[in-house]
Each structure stands twice: as structure tokens, then as C-alpha cells.
Amino acid sequence: MELSENVQTLFFVLEYTGVGLAATIGGTIAKRMNFDIIGFAFVALISSLSGGLIRDAVLNDGPAAALTHPGYIITATAGALFAYLVDLRGKAWETFRFYADLTTIGVWAVGGTLKALANGLNWVPCVILAIITAIGGTLVRDVVLRRIPSLFTEQKMYVLPAIAASVVMLVFNHFGMLYGGMLVAAVIAPILAVALNFGGRYITALDAKRTERPLEEKLADALGLESDFDGAEEAAGEVVAALDAASDAQLVAALRVLLRNEVKERTEAKA
Questions:
Q1: Host domain of residue 128
Q2: Which of the four pLDDT bands, split at 50, 70 and 90, describes residue 224?
């Protein structure tokens, strides 16, 4: 597939944007872990370049783009230096880091899809390469740092937006609007990622609220009372009466049981 000059230019703009953002985010993680300058540079570079390197290795279409275009290394180094020299912390930075991380999903998904199209691949490999490019850097970084890859805990926030971006771009390309598809796909992915993130938090909080037992039931268990009360009002009355009649030693013992049960319930809820 022959790519126009405008498409190639947009491809490199998006790629370099993703590289710069990923290098900065990776650098801040290395700084937080008190790495030296070598470890710092290594984490920043693998965060920003691994996805593209894996993609190009899978395609086996000559040397990887990061090795043939010096702009990749220069951009990654600039992002790493920025993170190293500037004290990036606080609520404003964490907010920026969160949205920047999601922005890279669309950028990388577009890059992976375009590379696959340029090599004449059909829809399924295009989507697979979009996912590989979008998650590769984060996955390799987490493995190197011996952390559970966020792909396995927040996969809906990374994989689904990458798939959506790739499909959108493929649809636009089908109708001969590849350039517009790249722009739309790069925007849709982070929007979907944000929606999935906040939607998931809302559902989790709602489920927790629904399954949360009333305080009077927890206190009844801690005090050793029967928990099959006829309504919340009766339960509250029985618990209040039991608390008034309990000695200090009994209250301490009940508090110990209450706290132990609370910790156990919250631990099981997160599992």
C-alpha cells in the first residue's frame, strides 16, 4: 500500500508525540524508584520505544523505525531529560500523566494499524498490531520493573480503546479517507479509555455500596447478637441496648471483632 506524503507526515507526528509522552512517564516512574541515571534512561527508553520495536520486529520489514529515524531516539531522550531535570509531582502532574498515558493509546494504535496497512495485511492483523504497539512499552516496562503488568489489571482501559481506534481507522481507510481516519482514531481511543476508567470506578463503587452491610449488622455480629432482626429499627434498638449493657472489656473485645471482620470483608471484596 502506497502512503501519501501527508499520511506519512502525520504518522511521524503521532509517533513522536507518543514517544515523548511515554518517555516522560517512564522517566517519572524511574525517578520515583530512585534509579541512577543509567536505570533512569533505560526505563524511559523501553517505555517509549518497546511497542514500536516489537511491532517492527513482528512485521520483519527491514530495520526498526527507531533505528533508522534518529528522531525517535532524540524525542525519547528529550522526554527522559525533561522528567529527570524537572520535579514532576503533585495533583496537576498526576492528572496530566493519567491523560497523557491514555493519549498514547490512540497514537500507538494508529501507528500499528498504519504499519500493518502499509504491508498489505488484512483487518485482523491490523488490529493485533495496533494492540501490540499500544501496550508494548507499558508491558515491557512493568516486566522489567518486576511489577504486575497494568495490562492484566486495567486491560479494558488499554486494549479496548486500541481495538476501537484500529477499527475506526480501518473503516475510514475502506472509504478512502485514511488521513481523516488517523485523526479520528487518535482522538476516539483516549476518550473511550477515560469513559471506561470512570465507568469502571463508578460500577465498582456502586457494587461495593450495594454489598456493604449496615453498621448495626456488623455490630450485632461483633457483640454476638442474633442478626435476623425484623427491620433496621429493631436491629438498631437491640444493638444500642447491648452496647449500653456491655462492660468496658466486652466493648474492647467487640471492637476487636468488628475491626477484624471489616478488614476481612474489604480484603475479600478486592480479591
A1: 5-209
A2: confident
In whole angstroms, give the CA distance from residue 219 to residue 240.
10
Predicted pLDDT of residue 207: 56
pLDDT tens-digit series, residues 230-243: 556 666 777 778 87
pLDDT digits (tens, 9 = 90+) for 167-194: 999 999 999 999 999 999 999 998 998 8
CA triple 100-45-85, angle to 5 deg: 70
Residues 131 and 254 in one domain: no
182 and 61 co-located in one domain: yes
Written in H, E and C, the secondary structure of the chain is CCCCHHHHHHHHHHHHHHHHHHHHHHHHHHHHCCCCHHHHHHHHHHHHHHHHHHHHHHHCCCCCHHHHCHHHHHHHHHHHHHHHHCCCCCHHHHHHHHHHHHHHHHHHHHHHHHHHHHCCCCHHHHHHHHHHHHHHHHHHHHHHCCCCCHHHHCHHHHHHHHHHHHHHHHHHHHCCCHHHHHHHHHHHHHHHHHHHHHHHHHHHHHHHHHHCCCHHHHHHHHHCCCCCCCCHHHHHHHHHHHHHHCCHHHHHHHHHHHHHHHHHHHHHHHC
Look up the pTM and report it: 0.69
Same domain, 173 and 51: yes
Q: Are the CB atoms for 107 and 18 separated by under 8 Å?
A: yes
